[in-house]
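ok trying again, last paste got cut off:
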Amino acid sequence: KKDIEKLGVTPLPDNHKSDKYFYQIIVFTGQRKHAGTKSKIHFVLSGDSDTTHVRTFADPHRQIFQRGGIDSFIMAVPKSLGLLNCIRIWHDNSGQGSSSSWFLKYLIVRDLQTMEKFHFISQRWFAVEKEDGNIERVLPIASEIEKQEFSYIVSKKSYHSVSDGHLWFSIFSRPPSTKFTRVQRCTCCFVLLFISMFLNIMYYDLSNEAKTNSASLSFDSFYINPQQIIIGVIVEVFALIPSLLLVQLFRRLRSRRQQISPLRQALYAIKSHLEIKKENKQKLGRTFPWWYIFIAYGLSILLVGVSIIFIIARGIEFGDEKTQKWLTSILSGFFSSIFLTQPLKIISLAIFFAFFCRKPNDDKEANEYLNDDQFDLNDDEEYLHSMKVNSLFLYRSPIRANRLNKGEITFARDQRLKEIYMWSILREIFIYSCFLSLLCIVTYSNHHPNASLQVNHLRNYFLDSDYMQISTINQYWYWLENSFVENIRAQQWYNGDAPRNLSGYINDKSNRFIGWATMRQLRIKSQLCQVKNEIISTCQYDYSSSNEDKHSYQPGWFNETIETYSLSISQSFQYQSSKDLDTYTYVGDYGNYEGGGYVYEFRGRLSDLQSNVSQLHQLAWIDNQTRAVIIELSLYNPNAQLFTSVIFLTEFLSTGGIYLSSRFEPMNFDAFTSMYQLISIIVYMIMILYFMWIEIRLLLKLKWNYFHRFWSYIEIGIIVCSWTSVGIYVWRYKECQRIGELFEETNGYVYINLQLASYINDILTFLFAFCCFFGTIK
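nice, full thing came through this time. structure:
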């Protein structure tokens, strides 16, 4: 019903009952934000022969000049205006707020006696706060060259293509003039969806169960990989072919009953004995009889029915993995249809027609309002009598057009700009409040809810009183032999039962090793004292990469020995580089320690470990040249599904003191812990893109002055940190995938260093912190 109202042709309320020459005026309002208006629009139309008085556009039955609207009017004048030259058009700025402004695309004026059409191109704002601030403009008649300009044609076709050509969006934005109904569009969408489901299930029915792609994103037991998305997009392209055929079948249906154009209806209401002198039927291409609608709906039911039968028949045989892949492909195909295939189809067709089919008279938006029939509008007595009885033309005194003077326009502009500024402040506060809340959600969702509990447990478990009281080398060995070694092997239960199925677990029986623990020592060279000393000739300075000892020794730090030791003891006196160990520089409180060193691996039974540690103590593995001992553990808690990197750093200072520090870094190797986190990140990045768009517009407007604003750097900080976080997130994801694959292949019985993953996680945390910092300031 609302669509039919929009199609109506409205006689102007200020038509005089004695006027007998008619023009049709079609007004095209733009699709930009706040393009519609509630202000009163006035105009003066000028031709070679005459000029109209001030006329007013109005319709008592419906709202006119809405955003993206097309409004058609019939204007009566005493005689022909001749060849039209220009139209002066303005509004009185009487609308409230944004409803006072108006964006006019163009007008078409047609002489209903000669059927000659005149185009007036505007593409300008009639607003005190926009562009040049004018609310009155003179539009000259457009030449043939102007009507065929690329920008003008694209402007005409773009909105119509989206509102009518996009299968999904057109359900809501269908142009009133088209005969392709919303029910028919829903039917085509329904068919497209089921055909894509059918083609997807055909593919997965023929394919074998494949191993989960290493690049997949997992959400608990559900995962998505690029292959599923690509399959969904390709299938959607194939499904588009039958849906396009069905769309064309619906579009080309002829009406069952002959339709009377809105213009003819309006003229019949004015002049009941109207005669058509000449009828030029517009070529609409090949059409189908009205009863083809049964074929179209029958074909739709057939396609949907076959798809449902096949989906039920084959889908019940699918396992969980294939079902997940199938659902993922359906969703990716659905969204690609909305945001990829349909927009690409619209853009390509619009550009093609703009370049190669520049027909000035080919205006689909106006065709429903323009009828090529030539009417007999000569005056007769019967017409005048019928008007007295029932006429749409009533005698009215000339309407007074309210024209604002310069002072009033300036005042209105100031008031409107203040209003816009006020709303922009409120909108910005609201957007940034939402952004900051979303940023906090993204930041905290990056951490596992059990991470803090895991850290507290491991701290209480390892950092006992023996560890906290270490101040000498002997106390350090005592802690290793009597506390640490016992803690890293699962022992008997409290009731004396053996720890069955707990191989590789530490003594808390909840966390298991990924491989084994390592103890790495960094030493310095013994060198001559820099200052001559009468007491000693050699000195041991603080650690640096230049004086690090990288030589290999025999047990006891000798160059040669005749005694035989186990392999693990001998290797602990052999220097290994960071490349051999796959380790990186570690930052301590008193130095930055390289990734190489002398490494002892805690491998074997508890009794073997105790014996080896005792032997290392006897061989003075830690002496006055030792500057740091780093114990590294990589743990996995299957109950919390958390990996934890544990590092105990003991720094042996040149002053003789010992400084202890520890680090517990829990990590979750799932890319996203929940769908809620994924949605939050997607919305967050959409907001970042929105901020980028605002800043780019501001940069183009202010140029170098943009960098003189303090808030510009805050915005740049938010944008740069956010996009850097995306890169680091991908890096962490790939590193976690590598570790996860290695852990799965070896069942956790090979040493995996989590140091790099821990560093990447720290960088990501720092970036999130900077985002929160800049966001809070803003």
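cool. Residues 209-214, 278-282, 378-397 have pLDDT under 50 and may be disordered. The first helix runs from residue 2 to 7.
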